[in-house]
Amino acid sequence: MSKRILKLVQSDDLRRSKSDKLLAHYIERNIADLPFETARSIAQRLQLSPMTVGRYLRRMGFDGLDELKNELRHGSANPAWQVKGRFEGLEQDRQEGKLLAGLIQQQIDNLTQIYGVVQSPEWQKTIDALIGATEVYVAAYQNVRGVAQYFASQLSYTRPRVQFVDGLNGTYSELLDGSVEGRLLFLHDVRRFAAKARPLAQEARRAGVKVVLLTDEFCPWGPEVSDICLIVPGSHGPLWDGAATMTAVMDLMLSNIIVVLGEEVNERVETLTRLQDIFGDFEA
């Protein structure tokens, strides 16, 4: 990727709207695949219109994707690192300790952005919804699935009737059968977005299930398909997207719930601890 193109897609002028950010990050992370793409295929992947992609390319200064491809062919590129990396001489930086220091600082910068999230009205609505629901169903996909499973497991220590749903039954009937009122779907999805996430949220709302979506700033459809959309700043790590920020957000949610529920959580933990002792899953 030429330095000029990298500078363009990282500029504030080309990251103003959600669609801008989606396209900028897609170009950064998928530069090696662009020769095989069309404006229509990119639009389909990002759930945008081809016209939106075309306008973005013109703002970059290219009359279509072919012109961008042509510059890439004639520019010096090292997609494996230039796509996400902003280091030159990575091995030297590693040896001097600069690489890890930069990564640590980036994690710190990402975490400091959480303060704005927890001060938002959507945060309190999310906490209230997680406490007040009759049943909570947690869903996530692909590389964020494990983080959401962790959240569901920890949430089950604070309140009853929490379940992670994987959709392997092909119907999500445990969530969507309408047998219990007051259900909540806590859906976690970040870029690149899972194909099932959006239709699951839409179907849940049709079934009368409240939907809380925890997502990142690159999601263009979140508010449309959810009752509460909690948007966390997207990961901007120099090498790849990490889960530290989202995990921290979920831990803060759990802490907030524990503070609100107070003694109820203590009683539930005591009950679960007694059951754990009976069934012997943990060492003394």
From TrEMBL:
Coiled-coil spans in chain: none
Originating species: Shinella fusca
Protein's recorded name: DNA-binding MurR/RpiR family transcriptional regulator
Signal peptide: none
PROSITE patterns membership: HTH_RPIR
GO biological process: carbohydrate derivative metabolic process
InterPro entries reported for this sequence: Homeodomain-like_sf, HTH_RpiR, RpiR-like, SIS_dom_sf, WH-like_DNA-bd_sf
Key words of the record: DNA-binding
GO molecular function: carbohydrate derivative binding; DNA binding; DNA-binding transcription factor activity
Location of the HTH rpiR-type domain: 3-79
